[in-house]
Amino acid sequence: MPFPGIPPLPPSVAVPPLILLASEAISSLLWRASLVPPAWGVFDQNGDQVLFPDSVLEFTKRQQYDLARYPVQDGSFASYNKVIEPFEITLRLSKGGTLSDRVNFLASIDALVASIALYTVVTAEATYPSVNFDRSEVTRRGAKGAYFLTEVDVYCQQIIQTQAQYTTTGVQLPNAQSPAAKPTSNVGNVQPQLPSSQVAQDGQTALAATSPAFY
User: Which whole number is the average pLDDT over 97-101?
Assistant: First the structure.
């Protein structure tokens, strides 16, 4: 039945079958893409995945802020200074497959923990960039633990990067190793003075008491 206001196609005009098949294939791909959940994983700075577990069993993120509670100027007390701490993430992973698969998986975790590079942890709801892994734990329990890695925990924390700031003294030395070196300041000449007689006598007495006797 034609839609109102739109004239029907003449009988001689037909949609080619290839176009119909292509349209159905595109619709199928879009439908599947809408159902694929976001990828969980650990990625390097190039966007490449570095860990390939069978599943992520647990995810824990810890975020803490420190409140200053200490005496301040003039003996008053304040607890309103709040400082953010780097967040910490724990991932519990599992890995099965062949013996070679499990060996490579553990080797990749050891390399990850030993690395000083920064990584990104991706979850379904949030992405956590600029983290470094500093610890791992492997727990094997029961009969399944002999042939499968059921509890592999990896720990990481956020690396907060800051830019170093330098200041100069305004005085430049021509032969200084560092251009920001500060020259010595002359605070005046110090004139030596003789000690008083009582001080000299006390010094001689102390010296004689500590010196060995010679005969």
Answer: 92
The mean pLDDT of 41-56, rounded to a whole number, is 92
Q: Walk me through the domains of the chain, giving residue ranges and CATH numbers.
A: 41-158 (2.40.30.200)
**Counting Cβ atoms within 10 Å, is residue 186 exposed (0-12), middle (13-18) or buried (19+)?**
exposed
Q: Which helix (H) or strand (E) holds 18?
A: helix 17-35
- Looking at per-residue pLDDT, the higher value among 2 and 149 belongs to 149
pLDDT at 27: 58
Q: How far is the CA of 94 from the CAs of 89, 101, 135, 148, 196, in angstroms?
A: 17, 12, 16, 8, 84
Residue among 157, 151, 149 nearest 113 (CA):
157
Strand partners, 70: 78
Q: How far apart are CA 209 and CA 190, in angstroms?
A: 32
Sign of the CA dihedral with 183 first, then 185, 186, and 192 last = negative
Q: What was the pLDDT predicted at 194? A: 73
